[in-house]
Amino acid sequence: MLRHLGNITKMDPVELKMLKRRTDIATLVVLAVVALLVVRLWQLQIQHGAEYLKRSENNRIRVQQLAAPRGNLLDRHGELMVTNRPRFNVVWIREDAPHPDEVIKRLSRLLELEITELLDRIRAGAQQPHFIPTRLKEDIDWSTLVRIENNSYNLPGVRIEVQPTRDYLYGNMASHLVGYLGEINRPELSELRRQGYRPGDMIGKMGLEKLYEPYLRGEKGRSYVEVDVRGFAQKQLQVEEPLPGNDLQLTLDLELQRLAEEALTDRAGAVVVMEVDSGRLLAMASAPPLPLESFTGGISSRIWRGLLEDRRAPLLNKPIQGQYPPGSVYKIVSALAALEEGVITPETTHFCGGSIVYRGRRYHCWQRRGHGQVDLEKALAESCDVFFYQVGKELGVDTLAHYARLLGLGQPTGVKLEHEKGGLVPTAEWKRQKHGEPWQLGETLSTVIGQGFNLATPLQIARLTAAVANGGRLYRPQLVSAIYDPEGQLLEKFESELTQHITAIRNSSWETLRRGLEEVVAGERGTGRAARVEDLRVAGKTGTSQVVRLSLLEEFATDEDIPYRYRNHAWFTAFAPVDDPRIAVTVLVEHGGGGGSTAAPVAGTIFEAYSRRLPASTATQATETSPATNDASPPPEPAEDGGP
Amino acid sequence: MLRFDRRLLQNFDWVMVAAVLLVGLLGLLNLYSASSLDRELGSAVFVKQLSYFLLGFMVILVITLVDYKVLIKWNYPIYGLALFLLLAVLLVGGEVAGTQRWLNFVFFRLQPSEPAKLALVITLASYYYRKDTGKGFTIKELLLPIALAAVPFGLIIMQPDLGTGMMLGFIFLSMTLFVKLKWSAILSMAGAAAAVIPLGWKFYLKPYQQERILTFLSPDSNPLGSGYHITQSKIAVGSGTTFGKGYMEGTQAHLDFLPERHTDFAFSVWAEEWGFIGSLFFLACYFFIILWGMNIALTARDKFGVLLAFGVVSLIFWQATINLGMVLGLLPVVGMPLPLFSYGGSSLLTTMAGIGILINIRMRRFMTP
Questions:
Q1: Confidence check: pLDDT of A637 > 50
Q2: Which of A168, A188, A345, B53 is the most exposed place for a label (fewest CB within 10 A)?
Q3: ipTM of this model?
């Protein structure tokens, strides 16, 4: 290869002479530049050196960083949910007040703080360069501010810093989604320093505040203040105003979110309201809420411990992190599997005598007296367990699991939030790996009614319900619809995202299922009657999932006697309007008792609020005349629903 | 392929190695002081720069092993790779302060505009070497080199990085004026430049860049806005007076008045702490490298060596001139590191590769081609 290049030529003398001349010219240019630089250095350092030295000694321009107001959070109609308010901090600049004893004494009086506490703060800031302000007290009130300003002539080095802080217009609304801010910590700082973060900056620690930090944070500004030798500000030289962060428009609907949270007051649980044809979340509540205000400026360890020890687990974002046995809600999956696999037709009936015996064990229906002859519609409406035991025997656990996965269970929904859980869809293989034991056929009977090993999050159930309503389309649940810059210009718009379209399931199966689910609410003995709304056709399913073995509960005479942690979880999931589905609502109340009595009314409230906004044409008269399938049943009982 | 001749070792350019080592050590010394304000960041930066420096010597060693004339053939692949990296940085590059200049590799953040400068030098040297008829280039023959410079120029301008983009222009001009041109070619290029520059001012330059240039023309009109950097740098340099404030004693640098003090404004820290005497010493060391490089160009065994060496020297020279001019308040503020001295791995490794090419040319000056 090199030989090929052997034609490289030695230079002839004429050319060499020309190149030499050019190199000489270049050398002259270089020398001229050197001379110029030397002259300039002489000019700066020798001729004007004394002058510049003096200027450097008097160079007492303080550059103060001005924190940018974070972007606002808006609801889907553009209503403000979270914004900013100014917060006044007292800061002290060491370099400007070299002998601070007097100052500290005065400050301690003005701020009503112990001297030792002030000294602790000062010591903590001692590692910083001495021109960097140390915060002595955050968020002082108006009267303290006035007192400090009035005394500023004998408080050298003390300044007031204005820092925007979060203002939660609706208290703890959507607290788990909004998340909170905290002072940047060391690991975050070393990672993000390049992006302009400095010690003392606030940064999103959880929820949307954390996930959308780059959009929300804005750009810091600077204020240049000239100070004299004694540390008093002489004049404001220039202010580069900070650039506010971008606004997030959420998909949430303020009113529905508020209703959902109110319904969960003093309870633990979750409510999810999802738009059926887009996956947008109109409400996603987790109870109890996080006390957002107590997180600003660092949460006290006492409050933190209280949150950790609360049996209602306020730190858990239940719609996506709470994993619960789905209970009878799971019968939606079982019914669909049975129809598709040809195990039953809409006309198939089974006899429910209150229990069946399978492989030497008795399996009860929640209705101990039995439901008599039951077809699918009635089995759904009255949540007959025996009917589904029969179905389950024929389906087998792995077929059930196939349909559960098809409907999005057992895997995270992909909503853009942190730490989403995936739930659990048991299979024979799973049990062999996890427990080292083969699958017991009896366990299929628990699985088919949503007990046993099954686990699901409320968000998964909401998405599943939406898929039933829209004929098998699973959307990625969406929380943020758009981002706007501070001037209100649209920066980014997030379209809905179809993750999967289940085409394998026949239309007739969806139809049959939806008819059964409407009976749950509309039927005379439907377990979800408490979710009925005037002028709106609602279809849903109740669920009451057991936390402990039934025999344990039988020791207690009344429901009130059952200890909190033994009580059943109450589920209800539904969509409406049936003929033109718009929203799906899923309610879970931890240890709330019966799904029909506790969870269904919550959904009812939300549907009612929603129906008031629907144009009259879509809110059709709820059909009270249900098909006469339950003629043979015993007289109505208070709606109660439950697993075996 | 590796015919290693004993004479290569005898002729190895120890002078250049020593000069580079000296300037590099001054740079590290200065970096330690400049970054000491922030202890945590400081030591990380220092260790990084030290390891890039050591890596740079390995680059020199590798480059000197192969005869530089292979570059005649490899110019387009090298050029293509540089373009690819520049394209990649626009598509997937990491964003710093609104500009996309970085490609993140696992252990290294590459700034592809740095190696692109060297790739342009190699490709222009190769082109002019191959096409030179001795009668002087016509404007038509210059169209390809103009395009070769314009494409990476455009890509870098889009990042946007005006300083580095201009650098490519300086390299192109230096190398093109170095070869023999026809007068018609010179006149038409001058005419084109006169037409393009006002358009560039109007349509490409962002308001803040225009402001910087205007500020430079009268810096005291806006001492806190874009004049702030120039003013603070001048105070730093000037306050060093004759003997300087002493190592680690620079108040301007340590009080955080100086922006970018470990990268673009590294020399003002040096001038503040070591004064006029120290600055002269530094300039002597630094420009020795450039003049020595010029001598390498002059004594190269063939014309390709002359062109290549001249290109590398012009690369280092223009960066140094622009950087020092900016630090001393003679030129407007553009982002431009001082090769071998400022902090930054991409710039250091590129410069060391260039030095490797110079040593390569030097040690083969007596070899028969």
A1: no
A2: A345
A3: 0.92
